[in-house]
Design brief:
Blueprint (H helix, E strand, L loop, with lengths): L2 H43 L3 H11 L15 E4 L6 E4 L5 H10 L1 H5 L5
Antiparallel strand pairs: 1-2
């Protein structure tokens, strides 16, 4: 490579680093502005951050849950021999697996209460 090409590459890398640093600074400035605006709003209304959080939780109880599918229904089984009750949402329950090995999958399914 020629000397000019090396200098050009060096300048490109330096400019790219400066642009990344500038982007990070802009993001930090935006975050700081938002935080200060929230603090000012809280002080205007005489609220603490904890009180504001409690208000938001009461107003939107489902906010913040990342669940995209409904919860698997709870299944309850009762062993007729031991009267032991097992509650499970899935099929990988240790006690249920032991029952299935001993009595068979179809038999254990008949023990389902709910």
């Amino acid at each position: 490579m020629t000397n000019a090409a090396l200098k050009e590459k060096s300048l490109e890398h330096m400019l790219a680093r400066e642009l990344r640093a500038l982007d990070e600074q802009t993001e930090q400035d935006t975050d700081t502005e938002f935080y200060l605006a929230i603090e000012q709003l809280l002080s205007e209304h005489g609220l603490s951050a904890q009180q504001a959080a409690e208000i938001l939780v009461v107003a939107h109880p489902d906010a913040g849950t990342d669940r995209t599918r409904p919860l698997t229904p709870l299944k309850v089984f009762r062993n007729p021999y031991t009267r032991e009750v097992v509650k499970s949402r899935g099929f990988n329950h240790q006690t249920l697996n032991e029952w299935r090995k001993r009595h068979g999958r179809l038999t254990v399914q008949t023990w389902r209460i709910k």
